[in-house]
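For the sake of transparency, this paper describes our internal protein records without simplification. The remainder of this section carries one protein's record, kept here as part of the documentation:
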Amino acid sequence: MREGALKAWLFRAANGLRLPAIAATWVRGVPILAYHGVTARPSSPFGNMRRLHVPAWRFEEHLRVLSTECRPIALRELVEAVETGKTLPARSVVLTFDDGYRNVLTTALPLLRKYSVPATLFVVTHNGGRMWEDEVEVAVELAAAESVRCNGAVYRLHSLDDKRRALAAILPALQRLGPAREQALGPLVEGLGAPSFPKDDDRDVLDWEELSTLQREGVEIGSHADRHDPLTERPIADVRQALCKSREALLSHFGLDRYALAYPYGASGDAISAAARDAGFSCALIGRPGFNHSSTDLFALKRFLIGADDDELRLRASLSGLRAFGRSGRAWGLA
């Protein structure tokens, strides 16, 4: 989630030359911004390790730019425009959140209301607890053990720096395990010897009652599948069943008809897109940057990933399209 020093310098130089403003005049299409959470917590050496959660003051900066220089629209407006051929106003932009962290309710919602910016929240419908990534992060942070073994490697946990290095290696190692990850999580967390995890708006996910509150406040609720694993790891028959059940869960709680889907980790493919269509979703969002047009595949809508270190300059670089240059097009490694 961090930009390199060279790229940060290039953003500043581009802004000095007014390149984002110039590029914005010829950009055609609608950017979708992908956030994960908004944190009210002061910066700490360990918290927000994956840089997912944007500080509240920075999120307000973003909303100020979006509300004064752009035209924030709901995701459903973009979908309807693509379906009907309707032309959307210039500088339209869509704001979304993945994962369903509680801080979207406690910290982001008041700011969204203040600036009258619509948003869509994609939730894991059969989660029942924390994301596995957050469970590991907290367990490493609070670890009583002096070392831990994961996937054949041993990591020291003597100091805060040790823990940061261990976490930076353990999370990718678990991701590489694919479906075997679930069997590895229990022994890993147990071996860390962490006490019971405290409540935490930046790591806990919203329950259905809290999601209903957001929905009543105008936040569009969508699916992030049934669990937070890449759909590309799963047999396609399992994917079809999982997506149908995820949509049914939303229907049973909110009683609406059309729901959007965000592929976990932004990972998809032709067969998975077809399964999303067949399950009855209105659209699906991938993990690649870019703009969306009238000819865009509704089941491959592009998004710009926004994280804790994305200041106003980087936001403008995304909105202008400059940030998409040089990207490999690969799906996100952590979203």
